Amino acid sequence: MKQIIECVPNFSEGNDLHLIAQITAEIEKVDGVKLLDVDPGKATNRTVVTLVGEPERVIEAAFLAMKKAAELIDMGKHQGEHPRMGATDVCPLIPVSGISMEETAAYAIKLAKRVGTELNLPVYLYEEAQPNKERSNLSVIRAGEYEGFFTKIKEPKWKPDFGPAEFSARSGATVIGAREFLIAYNVNLNTTSTRLANSVAFDVREAGRVKREGHPVLGKLVLDADGEPVRVPGKLKATKAIGWFIEEYGIAQISMNLTNYLITPLHSAFDAVCESAQSRGLRVTGSELVGLIPLKAMLDAGTYFLEKQGRSLGVSEEELIHIAIKSLGLDELSPFDPNKKIIEYQLRNLEDEKLISMTAKKLAYETASESPAPGGGSVSAYAGALGTALGTMVANLSANKRGWEDKSSYFSQKGAEGQGILKKLLAQVDEDTRAFNAIMDSFSLPKDTEEEKAERSKAIKEATINACQVPFEVMKNAHAALPLLEAMIREGNPNSVTDAGVGALCVRTAVAGAYLNVKVNAGGLKDKSPVAQLLIDAESIYQQTETIVAQLVQNVEAKLSS
């Protein structure tokens, strides 16, 4: 698997779009790096940039951008709501795929060393790249901010990890590290009071607030045995938060960093702020995402709100995301485009979804054209998807049937299972065509020399084995929909029993059609040993499907005649 990391440098300029464009242009110079998002904030006077790619290329792009930022941004003139200490305030690297956190941290250290040496800037390591855990927390490093660092950097314990122990009046210092995915998330309040917003922030953030006797603000500090202030923890783990007023919008916000969304999900943070705000006579009006977000965080939020509404979970990915956007009010301040804000959607190749992005009519005409692909394999996958979709539909109708409230949870879960299978089969519509095209491409390779002939033969064999595996996966996924369809025929909404029956027939077509493709592709292999077990398993799945579907059709007919 190719190693992919994400980099999210934060530059201390959010108003001069021409200046920001010069910085991001440096990133776009590097081949193999994709600039995913540029998110300037006027009130914070800060731009969050997101880029991804292979590690060496990403750190090259990050270095060039940091170099340009140091040339263009004068920190002596900078003002903004967000804490900051340098032109490139912070630059985290995040593992995305095929790479460990330890490896990502090593790249962060490599980048930090280069910035310190070549740009002559003070650089601090943080999070997983920092071996000294007493100075690995970003807020601790940045304490004192730009104005305070002229003195702070002279303290022995705050000597930079790389670069000079002298603070640059123009460029400041920077923090580079490696961390898990962080969600930068702001919740909007119907107030202009920073004091009230901070009170809510202290309620929810993990660090909480200092404990006082009597009055929560004016009361005397409560100290521990060492003379340190006692803290009252906040409600949310892995959460940092402050309150601020955003002049651009005329509202106060709770600005949060969810440092591990698996510990504190987006929807939990939103609900906690709503609860705290209400207790203080405030109301949450919506929220705002800064930068990108993982798909899972949005799907989890959509699922959470659907469950609260008592609705079936057997809905599409698109609907889950829509529910999340509306429930969290992510479109209150500006439009929320999932294709631009969800990291997986930014990374996906639209060519991989060429067929399933077509209308039903266009897909039919595309199949009918003189091109050999899409062919029977893609159609088999689509037939399986349609059959699964029918079973999912019956589950959703059953979950929402009046008088069946006690069964709603059961049918909702069945619908969710159907959606999972449906998503896999839809992806395989295009995957089968790509597998066929790969075989055709391998046959077109040069064969003039003995070495070229060997490489061509190897490519043909590998492509042919893959072309057996793809329809075999279609068989497995389509077959996996049969328990759903059996349950819907047996106990689903009786008005839709024939829909579930048609679904079973579609699944039989999918399995049988994919089985034919497995066999014809295997026939192209002189040595069938790599697919010998696959052929045995495919025969078994085919026979099982034929038996099960025949019984399901009898069950439907029995219900119709009863």
How would you explain this protein's 3D organization?
This protein has 562 residues and is of the alpha+beta class. The chain folds into 3 domains: 4-178, Formiminotransferase, N-terminal subdomain (Formiminotransferase-cyclodeaminase, Chain B, domain 1, 2-Layer Sandwich); 183-347, 2-Layer Sandwich (Alpha-Beta Plaits), CATH 3.30.70.670; 350-561, Up-down Bundle (Four Helix Bundle (Hemerythrin (Met), subunit A)), CATH 1.20.120.680. The protein contains 18 helices and 13 strands. It has helices spanning 17-28, 55-72, 101-118, 138-142, 145-152, 194-204, 266-279, 295-309, 317-328, 338-341, 343-347, 360-368, 376-399, 408-443, 450-479, 482-491, 497-522, 532-561, and strands at residues 4-7, 10-11, 34-41, 46-53, 88-97, 123-127, 174-178, 183-189, 209-210, 231-232, 239-246, 251-258, 284-290. The strands form 3 sheets. Strands 1, 2, 3, 4, 5, 6 and 7 form a 7-stranded mixed β-sheet that branches. A 4-stranded antiparallel β-sheet has the order 11-12-8-13. A two-stranded antiparallel sheet has the order 9-10. β3 and β4 (46-53) form a beta hairpin. α1 (17-28) runs antiparallel to α2 and α15 packs parallel to α18. It starts with a strand and ends with a helix.
